[in-house]
Structures are given as structure tokens and as C-alpha cells.
Predict the structure.
Amino acid sequence: MLVSDIKSRPVYERLGVDASGRRHLVVSDAPRPLAEVIDGADSAAAPLGYWVVAATSAVDAQPQAEPATGNAVPLERRAFRAVPHLLDRLSHRLAQETVGFRLYAVGEEGFVWNVAKLAREAGLEAAECRTAHAGSLRRRVFCVHCKTITEDVTTSLAACDGCGAHLVVRDHFSRHLAAFMGVQADAEAPGELPPVEELFP
Amino acid sequence: MTALTVPLRVAATVPLSPTLRAFTLIPADGGLAPPSGPGAHLRLHLRSGGKLLRNAYSLTSNPEDRSHLSIIVRRVAASRGGSAFLHEEVAEGDVIEAGLPANLFPLVRTARKHLMVSGGIGLTPFLAYIAAFEAAGTPWELHHFCRPDERAVFEALLARLPASRVHIHCDMALGALEDALLRQPLGTHFYTCGPAALMEAGLALAQALGWPKVRLHSESFGGAAEGGAPFVAVLRRSGIEVAVGAETSLLAAMEAAGVDAPCLCRGGACGQCLIEVAEGEPEHRDHFLDEAERASNRLIMTCVSRSRTPRLVLEL
């Protein structure tokens, strides 16, 4: 029922540093080796930042400059306590940035599309903000009935956090909301629900 | 379908310099001027010395103000006759037939800021842009390049605008432009209009400084339509042959021969003038056909494209 050819379902490719950029920032929702998430970082010709969510209070988000290796430019690393912490600092950074900047987001879909939304609101074009998926496939689900977003959905049916409706998680994805659409499963025959499957581990 | 025309009366004509002249045009039948948008041009039908010329001029007036349309015309030394005619023979009160305004150089409404680079008379579309930006409160910045002897003319045209946004340069050194390109906030779009060398240099500099193509926009004065090897267009259905000279476009040659050929934008953009090709190989100069359509050699946009073969047979 869920495998579909809905065209709004994002398709991801592996990230690569866009050589035409003048400054690069890679953001990740988990600590991952930089070389694992993007190609060309060690040969980038322009300054590159790598921001990660460390998910611990033991980090201070201060820039840690790494010495350049070979002909590469300096790399600046920052670690954040949580996703909102990183997004907050990203908003400030985008407000000060100039044309020539390139942003790359890697992580779960809810995270990368929240980053893409911030980027769009800051004036970045799609060509300047690239996304890639890593980690869990769990989905953010938007209830089309009550407009509540339910996080971390791994199953084909999920109870809406807002109205409690049993939602079918569709492949229909909204870049505007950074979420998949959820539609009441038993709207026509109340109480009749299809079996629940673990689809988005 | 031949594009609709509207008669316009010359309400005022004012010399700005020995080679620049401003015209204010109002509908000859009264009423509101036809609608236009920032970056639109007006194609005047000029009857001079037995020839009919259709010359396009960027509108400089505020599109929101429908009381009149304004243009500025440069008298070109190697004129085909249009600009000399406008400078020397058109007087206040004369009525000129004109096509409806068309826009091949629209601004990007979602941009946060607009950075404009113009050269000489290439300033004209930006006068309409700036009127729209000032009305909407959108940030903008203009870098205008001109000869030293014309500096005062352009300063006067821009005198009522905020001085902090207007930068006039009288040399081709692009250092000031590089500084500007390096400090634009995210969401800025870049537009350029003027001599090809200036536009190419500005676009190349922007790309070298990390500006993606989607932010870059240029106006070419429709130069693509002009000139090439002469050829003969055979209109198979009408049973006539039209000689297309080196200095005229296929569309203009067909119109001169009395053929009511379809057209709208006359700039290779809209696709309205598309005609099937039966024989011969078109030389595509439009922005409409995709690569497969071009390679098929089965279609041609008559307003800008020409022929690689001496004969081109059209289904018209």
C-alpha cells in the first residue's frame, strides 16, 4: 500500500563539495566522519565548516579549527548539544552569509528538510543547499486533518499526537512542511484498520 | 497571428545628449497605456524611407503608472534607419504603431535584493526595475558603466534615487564590481544589460565568485536575431519563396512579403512562431526548443533562427 511512485518522495544522492562555492558548511544530525558524508572535503579550495549534533551536554559548540593538511583549506568543526541548538546557530549564520555560500545537510529526513527550510527562508536557492539521507528512516508525519506533526514514526500506521486519529503514512512528502502526509486510515469504515507494519526503521 | 498593435502618440521628446533622446508615448485613442512589467520592451513599427522597421526599446517608465510609456533611444552610427528616424524625423504629436509590451527580461520576484550592472544605454530596463523596487521597498544596488562624457547624462537620469544605491563607473575596471559581488546577502539576484563585453565579464566574474547560474540574468537587446548568411525560405503551403537577406530575420522577411506568420515575443522565447521544417537545416538561435527538438531539425522559431542550408522549406 505504501510503496508508490509518488513524485514528491525525495531522492538523495551522495554529497560532494561544489567546487564553485566560496564557503562551505556541512551540517549533520549525528557525529559522523566527514569523509563518510561528503566527497571532496579534503581537497576543497574554499573554507569548510562541519557542524554536528553530538547529543550530549559535554560539548560547548565553540569552533575548533583544524590545521590544514596538504593543499586543503582549514576545517572548522563545531559540536552542538541537540538539533535545536544547531538550527538556532545556523539561522544566525545564514543571516550573516553572502552569495557564494554552499550548505550541505545530512541526516534523518526530518532534520535535513528542516535545514533546507531554514536555508530557503534565508534566500538560498536549491542549487546552493544540498541534502542527503543518513541514519534512521523514521518519518515526521503531518496530520492532514488537525495539522499536528508527529515525530519519529517508524510504522505504516501511527496515532496522531494531536487528534489521536490512526494515520496512514503516505509517501507524499511536503518540502514546505518537511514532513510526510498522514491521512486517517479508517475514515470510511471507522474501526477497520489495516495491519501495522514496521516500514521505516 | 500577427501580434496586436496599438497606436501611440508622441507626447514629448527630449534630447538628453547628442546621441540619446527620451520619448514619452501615450495611447493615441486615449485611455490607459497597455500593461507591462519591469524589464519589458516596446517594439515600434517605424516607416522610414519606404522600409518598415520593427525596433525594440526597453521601457523606462514605472509599469504601475499606466498614464504613459517612456523609452530612451540611442542614435546608432551604423543605424539600419530606426534610431536615426526617431531622432530626426519623429516630432511631438506624431502617432507610431507599436506592438504590445513584451518581457524577455523579467525580474525575480522572490529575490531579497537585486544587484544590477548596466553599460551605457543598457541602463534603460533598470529604470523600470528601480521604480518597482522603490515602490515595493525591495533593496537594490546599481553599478552603471559609461563613457566619461556621458557621466553627467546618466547622473541626471539617476539623480532622484538614493545616492547610496547608485554607483557610476567610467572605466572598465571591475574591481568595484568584484567588491559588490563579494558582499551580497543570500537571496540576491544579479542582472546585467549593456554591451556584450561588459555583460560577459560581469557574468564570468560572478560565477568565479561562487554565484550559481540561477541567480544570474542578462538582457541581450535581441542581438541574436540579427544577421547571418542569406538564404531562401520556401513556404510550401503558400507556394511562395522569400529571400532572407543578411541583415533581416526570417520572420521580418516573411512579413515584408505579406505573409501573416505567427509570432508574439519576437525574441526567441515564447514559442508562438514555431513552424514545421520540411526540408533544410535550421540554425537555432532561440531559447525555447530543447536539445532533442533542435537536433531533429523539424522545427524552427522564425523570429530569431536562420538556415544553415541555402534553402529552407517551411510548412507555412
In short: The first helix of chain A runs from residue 34 to 37. The interface with chain B takes residues 20-23, 46, 94, 97-102, 122-128 of chain A (CB under 8 Å).
